[in-house]
Design goal:
two-stranded antiparallel ribbon, alpha+beta, 4 strands, single chain, 2 domains, two-stranded parallel sheet, 40% helix
């Protein structure tokens, strides 16, 4: 199987180019290409992912549905705050 690894695909590009990159990623997914998206843009992750896996200090700490998570939730897992509080608020 083929895999698309997109590491920070829209960092430093303008909004128009960003939309084109997002369209390309969506098209790849529709065509059955497995996609690994790595991004600090939390809205991008939520908008383009089927499943979001959060890592902290090299450990998997959460597997989340983009339909049920907010950027704030993701940030809480990324910083460890959600783990200290027993989950995202």
């Amino acid at each position: 199987p083929e895999v698309l690894i997109a590491a920070h695909p829209t960092r430093g590009i303008d909004v128009g180019a960003q939309a084109a990159v997002w369209d390309d990623i969506r098209a790849a997914r529709r065509n059955g290409l497995a996609t690994l998206l790595i991004s600090a843009d939390l809205d991008e992750l939520i908008g383009l992912s089927d499943t979001i896996v959060v890592m902290l200090r090299g450990e998997f700490v959460a597997t989340l549905s983009p339909d049920e998570v907010t950027p704030r939730d993701l940030g809480a897992y990324m910083t460890g705050a959600a783990l200290q509080n027993g989950g995202a608020d």
